[in-house]
Amino acid sequence: TRRAMTLKSLLRALVNMPPHYRYLCISHLIGWTAFLSNMLFFTDFMGQIVYRGDPYSAHNSTEFLIYERGVEVGCWGLCINSVFSSLYSYFQKVLVSYIGLKGLYFTGYLLFGLGTGFIGLFPNVYSTLVLCSLFGVMSSTLYTVPFNLITEYHREEEKERQQAPGGDPDNSVRGKGMDCATLTCMVQLAQILVGGGLGFLVNTAGTVVVVVITASAVALIGCCFVALFVRYVD
Question: What is the pTM for the complete model shown?
Answer without folding.
Answer: 0.90
